[in-house]
């Protein structure tokens, strides 16, 4: 099964997280052929040069070849590149599994947090763009921890 792994890749934290989760997936099933964009030095070695068309063509080719997309939704907002990749995958009817681990999603039954929503600038919860999340949910699912995501991937192998 070919998987496209979509996440930001510009900070050391993102780079390490991506490598760690992809290593776990590869270890869980050798049948997985995972494209991790940060491993494609031709377009993502930031000491070198790749223009916008080169990046768009290379990554779109890999999305088109995928049987499944994993999209990381964490961050202040969904990474704009990830959101674009989600749109392409959705348009091509490629199933998408999202991972959303942000701790601010917790506390939905906490009355103080719910009441705070009535006050200006006191939202205690994190917001994800509903259009982008909707594309995922129309053709996949969103998980809140790595183990559940890995299990979902393995059920598709």
TrEMBL record:
It comes from the Bacteria. This is Nucleoside 2-deoxyribosyltransferase. It comes from Lacticaseibacillus jixianensis. InterPro entries: 2'-dNMP_N-hydrolase (IPR051239), Nucleoside_deoxyribTrfase (IPR007710).
């Amino acid at each position: 099964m070919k998987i496209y792994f979509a996440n930001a890749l510009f900070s050391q934290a993102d780079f390490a997280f991506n490598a760690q989760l992809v290593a776990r997936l590869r270890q869980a099933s050798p049948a997985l052929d995972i494209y991790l964009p940060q491993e494609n030095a031709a377009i993502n070695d930031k000491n070198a040069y790749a223009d916008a068309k080169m990046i768009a063509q290379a990554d779109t080719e890999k999305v088109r070849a995928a049987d499944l997309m994993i999209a990381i939704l964490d961050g202040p907002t969904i990474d704009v590149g990830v959101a674009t990749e989600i749109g392409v995958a959705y348009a091509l009817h490629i199933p998408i599994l999202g991972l959303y681990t942000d701790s601010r999603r917790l506390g939905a039954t906490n009355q103080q947090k719910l009441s705070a929503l009535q006050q200006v600038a006191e939202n205690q919860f994190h917001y994800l763009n509903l259009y982008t999340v909707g594309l995922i949910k129309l053709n996949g699912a969103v998980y809140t921890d790595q183990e559940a995501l890995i299990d979902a991937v393995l059920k598709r192998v």
